[in-house]
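Quick one before lunch.
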Amino acid sequence: GGPASLSRFRGALVAAVLGDCVGGEFEGAEEVPMERVLQHLNSLDDETKGTGNLDYSDDTAMARCVVRSILAHAGYDERDMAHRFAKEYGESPDRGYGTGVVHVLKKLSSSHLSDVYQPARDQFNGRGSFGNGGAMRAAPFALAFPKLADVRRFARLGAMLTHSCSLGYNGAVLQALAVHLSLQGALDLPQQFISRLITEMEDVESDDMSRKDARILKEAEKPFCDRLHRVRDLMDRSKVSIEEVISELGNGIAALHSVPTAIFCVLHCLEPRECLPENYGGLERTIAYSLALGGDTDTIACMAGAIAGAHYGIEAIPQSWINCCEGAEDADVTAERLHALYHQSPQGG
Ligand code: R7I
Ligand code: MG
Ligand code: MG
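Model of the magnesium ion complex:
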């Protein structure tokens, strides 16, 4: 479909759930041979396994809170979103949450909290978390707000409810911007896509807090820009090994070591690749490639899925894969409501 078509909204939200559900199988594995990935994905075609048998994790659980909160308020409401995160955690605490963030979620359940951003600030000796938990649930911000400035602003605030370190919330901003651009059809020109992300992140990472955090954590002056330049270098190469991707970009639980990686997965899989089946389309390639990296596979596949789904649209996702994933059907339904909100927005599309 054209820019911001319903198919793209559905693709983004459903493929994010898919990445989370199928990626759970390999989360934490050091290296995953492509053979095993393909075996796992082939098994999804086996209808005897029943429907919805792959559970979603915290990635989808929190994204669903973001979506529902935005829909309920036709915009961002910090108290409501924080409350939904806490309630969801209270009802299903075993979705695989990060070990740090559970403390925030417990504090957020208190109704006397005067500042809902405070529990996140108290994390890790007051520096806040740089985990990818803000980024993993950032896609819905791109699907709710048509204006880039709003996507930036609200993805950042929404992440800060649990991740107050700039390396955490800036990762969420980057992920939301990637989905925003993809939704507009920007992946038709991959070089421009990565250049625009770099230009935006130059600005995002120019504030005092980002510079200070980068210095303290001994990262490059603008850590996400640095990684995006590496993505561009890897894109330009005809052959790249999985080992190089992992060593250059990472596959870990920090936003810095996973958001640029997810973006690379999407870019790398725009074209057919030798290591991937010929009958796979781009969306299938992206999911398979993300899993083969190992590490934080559910989250990297979830984020890559959102970006790729916004590009290829819902038609690119095999129905048999959708059938296996808990919450995929629900994501499809809510995508339609986000699409309506996005297009009714007074600022226009
Ligand atoms: O970021 P977060 O919500 O975790 C998301 C990940 C995804 O992969 C999910 O699929 C799920 O598996 O978890 O949770 P946090 O607890 O905020 O951060 C995750 C981890 O990153 C922490 O448990 C720490 O190990 C690490 N981490 C830090 N370590 C040292 N110093 C995050 N911030 C810091 C830090 O400042
Ligand atoms: Mg998870
Ligand atoms: Mg994960």
